[in-house]
Amino acid sequence: MPELPEVETTRRGIADHLLQSSIKEIIVRNPALRWPVPADLSQQAANQRILSVRRRAKYILLELGTETKATGTILIHLGMSGSLRILTEAFPAEKHDHIDLVLQNGIRLRYRDPRRFGAWLWIAGNPLTHPLLAHQGPEPLSADFNATYLADKLVNKRTAIKQLIMDNQLVVGVGNIYASESLFRARINPTRTGMSLTPTDIAVLCEQIKATLLEAIAAGGSTLRDYVDSDGKAGYFMINSYVYGRAGQPCRICGTPINQLRQGQRATFYCPQCQN
After folding, report:
1. Residue whose C-alpha is closest to residue 106's, from 90, 89, 119, 92
2. Is 135 domain-assigned?
3. In what order do the strands lie in the sheet with 97-103?
4. Of 110, 129, 161, 226, which has the highest C-beta tally within 10 A?
5. Is the pLDDT of residue 1 over 70?
């Protein structure tokens, strides 16, 4: 599933093509996504200008409006296999191309989703109060996510730290790949409980979560199976991963074989020597 770096890479790739452009129509070829695409989505969006292209957690928000007021927001989630491409009408739709947002200038934003687990929804009011967004934690790259905040959230927490930092109500967007990588860089064993972390551990972990995500964004994200960016390119962060997907291979720091275990139905990778 695309995580925060992949979604942010996608947002940056489409933003310049969409900002201040007017929508001609939205063509919905298959409305059966994770939640049904609203039947009136094209009617709501037609002739509206795209005022902003934002990201909140793993959602992309297209704020629409006129010259005088905002009218609504299209909320997009890529699901497990979704991608957004900027194309022209010269590219015919294929089997899994479910939605085209067509601009007045002919450019189209095409949504491809083989597994159909993503979403395109219309929000008339403040999008941040929508049930999908209202209870999300702070953005990990924001000033709100810091050592003081994290220390407060880890008090008396007996849950493993890796599962805690993957909880979107604690902090958004730190998915499985980046949780394993951040914990390695912070030299923290993923099985340690939240309450066992020292103030120094917490400060370093916050720093490494931010650094890992920024490095991943710069690398265009990570591609395991389906993800491509808005230009159709795969992300290459995983080429230099320290632990994720490297079970049995030597640690890049100490040479100890990387271990793999299951936590919360997800694979966790770590170095038993570097992370203790």
Report:
1. 89
2. no
3. 23-28, 97-103, 108-112, 83-87
4. 161
5. no
Domain shared by 8 and 124, yes or no: yes
Q: Any idea which residue has 């808005």 for tokens? A: 230
Same structural domain for residues 121 and 151?
no
pTM, 2 dp: 0.88
Half-sphere exposure of 231 (CA within 13 A, CB side): 8
Q: Tens digit of pLDDT for each residue in 212-248?
A: 999 888 887 654 444 344 444 444 456 678 999 999 9
Number of domains observed in the structure of the chain: 2
Q: Do 211 and 111 share a structural domain?
A: no
**Separation CA 43–CA 25 (nearest Å):** 8
Examine the domain organization and report whether 125 and 166 are in the same domain: no
Give me the active site residues, please. 2-3, 58, 266
CA distance 62 to 170: 25
Pairing mode, if any, of strands 97-103 and 23-28?
antiparallel
Q: Evaluate whether residue 176 is within a structural domain.
A: yes
- Tell me which residue range forms the domain holding 9: 4-129
pLDDT at 223: 40
CA distance 216 to 237: 5
Distance of CA 175 to the CA centre of its chain: 8
174 with 103, same domain? no
pLDDT in tens, 153-206: 999 999 999 999 999 999 999 989 999 999 999 999 999 999 999 999 999 999
